[in-house]
Amino acid sequence: MTEIKRIFDLLEHLSEKFPHKQNLFNGKVRETWLPYSVNSYINNTNILTTGFLSKGLTKGDRVITVMNNRPEWNI
Asked: How many angstroms separate the CA atoms of 32 and 8, rounded?
């Protein structure tokens, strides 16, 4: 099992411990609650990370997010 020392260790931990979990998070879009599975959480995180890297972000850079309380905040 993965030892969690950094926030990025959570992704591997989730994929090992809950590989088929379909509702890790739930978010409301208009009037409908939509589930976010472990796989979609990991995939969305990887897409965002790739985007940051393609924009030139490197170790030590800071990113700020401003949004309402929603599942995407965790990604």
From this structure: 30
Q: At CA 25, angle to CA 24 and CA 27, rounded to 5? A: 155
Let me know: does 74 contact 40? Beta carbons within 8 Å: no
pTM over 0.85: no
Residue type at 32 in one-letter notation: T
Q: Which residue has the tokens 């490197």?
A: 58
Instruction: Specify which residues 33 forms β-bridges with.
Output: 28
Each residue's pLDDT tens digit, 6-48: 877 888 888 888 878 888 888 888 899 988 888 888 898 899 8
* CA 3 to chain CA mean position, Å: 18
| Number of residues that make up the chain | 75
